[in-house]
Amino acid sequence: MPMEQQPSSGGSLNQYFDQACQAHADGRFDEALQGYLALLDLVPASALLHYNLGLVYYELTRYSDSLRAFAVADSLTPGDVDTLFNLALCHGKSGDRLSAITFYEQVLALCADHVDSLYNLGGCYQHLHQDDRASDYYRRVLALAPDYLSALNNLAYLHHRAGEVDEAIALYARVLELKPEDESVRYLLAALMGLPLEQAPDEYVRGFFDAYAGDFERSLVEDLGYDNPSRLYESLCHAEANGALAYAHGLDLGCGTGLSGQAFKSRIEVLDGVDLSAAMLRQAAEKNCYHSLCLDSIDHFLHNTSESYDFFLATDVFIYVGALEDIFTMAHDHARPGALFCFSTESLADEGFRLLPTGRFAYSSGYIHTLADSTGWKVLSEEPTRLRRERDDWIAGELWILQWEGSSSV
After folding, report:
1. What average pLDDT does range 187-199 have in this prediction?
2. Whole-angstrom distance, CA of residue 208 vs CA of residue 265
């Protein structure tokens, strides 16, 4: 749409509206935005134009602008279900779950079987940690749409998190019937059924952390008492017999939102990070403690990098990995003489390592010692710790400091 030409008649209004709509449909959102705004100069009381403008702003992730546009559309045509639903969506995207709930409830007052509103209400209450109410809404969704995959998956997850194993297994199994290629659900089902697995699929790790990145730090630190990066840092300080040392080039394996980078950055001149979750990396970048960040799996990154490091960090990462021999070997291959390897593990009383019903891997002390010996690392320190709260108890774990074998002691 050539915006220097202003529409001036009823016929040209329709023409320009069609062009703006076509740009919108084609994904040319900036062009569509300019078209709708030009038309609103001439027809400011058009609910349809304000509604379409809200849709374009939403696509451009300009949620505050989208809210204003939908609010005007709602004032011009009160009680329109689609407008109310989009107002709810925008409030949710803006982080105002309580306002989103209010608008979803308005939709349901007009259309009691509006399945997407029921589902999104479940999501709002799940985000607010009101799991019982979230579960009720997911069940209402499934009563209307038994094959609604996201509702099945979320309800399974809530049962899983609550330790209601039989219910979770039944729901995950139903998801796999409908979507047999879903490796994340297959992994969680195997965990609940006690099936032995060597690795967590990248798809599961990426999806899990992308979904919860926005609330990850608050939930972990405030709700679960998490402070493992600082505990691991203290463990390092205790292990350094010759006083606090500086390290030239560090690699944060599974860096997440950068909590570990913050704890260790003062001791590492150049710190790089690698993680599977783009959403987590965006938060890590905001902390300004990394020289570079790479969206990749640990295994693939170590296989392909030509860099060498004198410091490796992996805080609460291996619980989502599984077998560690390849990582230990590759880290040693990229280690400079005297390099340190600092990490945490979840405790396992038995030998070896095991996938737990929680979907996390736990490791025995003997497994780590044996693996360190066989891959060229020396255990400098092993310290028991409390990783974080889980329901009414604390998860037991260990903090480890390893050193590149063959060098002098720290």
Report:
1. 93
2. 26
